Amino acid sequence: MKAFDERVRSKENASDAGKTALLLYDFARDHYHLLLVGQFKIKEIGRGIQAAIEGQNETVLLNLARAFIEHTAAIAYQLGALEKAVRELPKKPEPKNLWAEVERHHQIVKKLHYNQNAAVHVNDMIGTLTKHDELARQGYEDLCEFVHPNYGSNKLVSSGQLGAGQIRSHSERLAPDLAKAHRLIEMCAILADDKFKKSATFYLSTLASWIEVAGKEGAKLSQIFSMREASSGDGKTKETAIVLTKARTRHEAIEALYAYLRAQKIKMLSRQTAAVEGGYLYDKVETDKGPLWVKCKMTA
Fold it and tell me: Given this model, what pLDDT does residue 79 score?
């Protein structure tokens, strides 16, 4: 990471592409760091939830369940912002417009990290999470009733009328609400550990590919976002592997492969690296029409 940082920064004043590489690098680094922060918080809250379940502490469980949803929603919101950036940046070919757009998107991730004066409200985050699971909003609002100092949270430890309710755990009476909380926790855990990680990997890999291209000697700004889909070979054997001839990075090679499969109406079932020879990576791709061999040149 340090060596890559120094290499990118050495290109800053060399060209428009060099400056773009630096801006994209700082932007990608900050998004990556904030995603790590969010994932670690979710992990720690999850440990607290496990302890609350084992200790049969419904009050702590429901409080932490709400926090778990909020922090999952924060990652959903961040990924939405990152997706938008990856989609919009290639539409700004002029240097100053592109740099301004990168800076605008960079400010968004800074707001998410520091969030001074509630620059991004939790309700907006929950709204983004609801796009992934339609029950998230109602589930969150139900949990809020058990967290705020009102009748909802009083019911966690008391029963009956004011002045007469028994003050103790009431887990049996709360069984339906606890079941809903468990479902919401499971939903958020699956999203955070699977779907969101895959999305983050794709968007950050896209940025890394652009940075790699922009940081090369003689790189031109107009080439950073260009599509590279050309290929040769039939892929039936390793010797006749499909060569992704114009891919400049590993990410571009993967994107070119997907484009090839779509064009040929082939469904990919699995993909694994099978060999590394002569400066090439060989992937064996299992498809609904049989195996395909694909190779792409390794990048420095």
Answer: 97
Contacts of 96 (CB under 8 A, 6+ apart): none
Strand 280-287 with 268-277, pairing:
antiparallel
Under DSSP, the state recorded for 191 is: I
Q: Which two tokens stand for residue 119?
A: 């620059």
How many Å apart are CA 171 and CA 201, to the nearest integer? 40
Give the neighbor-by-neighbor strand order of the sheet with 242-243. 242-243, 290-297, 280-287, 268-277
What is the b/e burial string over 86-111, where b = at least 16 CB atoms within 10 angstroms of the residue's CB? Answer: beebeeeeeeeebbebbeebbebbee
**N-terminal to C-terminal alpha carbon distance within the chain:** 14
Residues 3-21: pLDDT tens digits?
A: 556 655 555 556 889 899 9
d(Cα 78, Cα 51) in Å, to the nearest integer? Answer: 28
Residue 35 vs residues 130, 170, 222: alpha-carbon distances, Å: 19, 37, 30
Query: Residue 236 contacts by C-beta under 8 Å, 6 or more apart in sequence?
Result: 292, 293
- Taking the C-alpha atoms of residue 203 and residue 105, their distance in angstroms, rounded to an integer, is 14
Residue with tokens 């709204």: 127
d(CA 22, CA 204): 15
Contact 51, 63 (CB under 8 A): no
Whole-model pTM?
Answer: 0.83
Inter-residue contact 163 to 44 (CB < 8 Å): no
